[in-house]
Amino acid sequence: QQETIKESFAKYRQLVATFPRCTCLSSECVPLETAFFQHKEHGWISRFPTIVNCLVAQKYFVGRSTDVFVSSLPKSGTVWLKDLVYKIKRRGGNQDHKNDLLSPHQKVPFLELQVYASEDHVLDIDSLPSPRLLSTHIPYPSLPTSLIDSGCPIVYIWRDPKAVFVSDWHFFNEIIPSEPGKNHPPLTINEKFECFCNGYSIFGPYWDHVLGYWNAKKNGANILLIKYEDLMVDPVVQLKALAEFLKLPFTKEEEKDNIIHGIINACSFQTVKDSKMYESGNTELLQVQVNNTTFLRKGKTNDWENYLTPKMAERLDLLTVQKFADTDLI
Ligand code: A3P
């Protein structure tokens, strides 16, 4: 008899509870739902339910070559890229615009946080028409085999680890006080920094996550890597590359009509911050209601300077130079 999805969730919950628990990020007294664990086979770190959901996704997700995936580490600019990909894919005539006013996380849902959110919350993505726009923070080696085999395009956004660290520190320690069971004192920035440098960060180690996608691309996977800082400096170049990668290059007429700038402006930090789209509510991630505005904080490349000492910055830079030594990432 075939296992039901409820049984799969129960089975993987039992399994993940046997994985190593990361006590440096969440003490023993923290409830399972918010505790950090390490994926036994691939070594990455995340919240207990996320690893469970990732295993469920691995079992149930059926990929299509027409899917488009946005992938990233949290706090790398995922929400921005989702918006850009959505606008590129949905431009032109004969398009369905009924979802345009939803937040990017609703338009491009996360596999492990929204699609397979829990045994009682599974989105029916099998009945969605193609092309489906989906996203994930899952490290490349743990992606569902069906996703990889489909050969669908994956756009991966990555960001200076100093900025990722500072953004993450704000998001998880300050902005989300409503997390269930969060009755332990938040880590100080120094404690969390020590963890981050030692590889203990959400979906981390940071460097392994980036290298996982970089290596896969090097080995022929259908991946485009975009750096947050490059998108900031030269959005036109990055957007053209993105549209070409998605096999929807901007036409001469579109260029003449300023469509590229139109998309850049519509997705810019300030426009989005002022828009109703973000004021309009919450996104449910892992059954936690997260106000859409919390995904927008500063939207700058150098805000980390206000939080990290020169010594901390130097340490992260050195680690990055070492870890990315044999790549074209630096
Ligand atoms: P900061 O906290 O540094 O401001 P993610 O979507 O992966 O969680 O990333 C969130 C980070 O991207 C936040 O960084 C957020 O402010 C920034 N961001 C969100 N939308 C943006 C946009 N349209 N332009 C630039 N940065 C944006």
Describe the structure.
The strands form 4 sheets. The chain has a 4-stranded parallel β-sheet with strand order 6-3-7-8, with helices on both faces. The protein has a two-stranded antiparallel sheet with strand order 1-2. The chain is globular. The chain has one domain (63-323): Rossmann fold (3-Layer(aba) Sandwich). By secondary structure, it is of the alpha/beta class. It is built from 16 helices and 10 strands. Helix 1 packs across helix 2. The chain has helices spanning 5-16, 48-60, 78-89, 104-107, 111-115, 145-150, 161-175, 189-197, 206-218, 228-233, 235-245, 252-256, 259-266, 269-274, 276-279, 310-323, and strands at residues 36-38, 45-47, 68-72, 116-118, 121-122, 133-136, 154-158, 223-227, 282-285, 288-291. Residues 72, 74-80, 163, 167, 170, 267-269, 272, 295-299, 303 line the site of adenosine-3'-5'-diphosphate. Adenosine-3'-5'-diphosphate (A3P) binds at residues 72, 74-80, 163, 167, 170, 267-269, 272, 295-299, 303.
**Strand line-up in the sheet with most strands:** 6-3-7-8
Strand content: 5-15%
Poorly predicted runs are: none
Count up the helices: 16
**Ions, cofactors and other bound molecules:** adenosine-3'-5'-diphosphate
Radius of gyration: 19 Å
Main pleated sheet: 4 strands, parallel
Globally, the shape reads globular
Q: Do you know the CATH topology?
A: Rossmann fold
CATH architecture: 3-Layer(aba) Sandwich
Distance between the termini: 52 Å
Please provide the ordered H/E string of secondary-structure elements. HEEHEHHHEEEHEHHHEHHHHHHEEH
Number of domains: 1
What's the number of extended β-strand segments?
A: 10
Q: In the CATH hierarchy, what is the class?
A: Alpha Beta
Question: What's the pLDDT, averaged over the residues?
Answer: 92
Give the helix/strand class.
alpha/beta
CATH homology superfamily: P-loop containing nucleotide triphosphate hydrolases
Q: Helicity range of the residues?
A: 40-55%
Pfam family, one: Sulfotransfer_1
Protein name: Sulfotransferase
EC number: 2.8.2.-
Keywords: Transferase
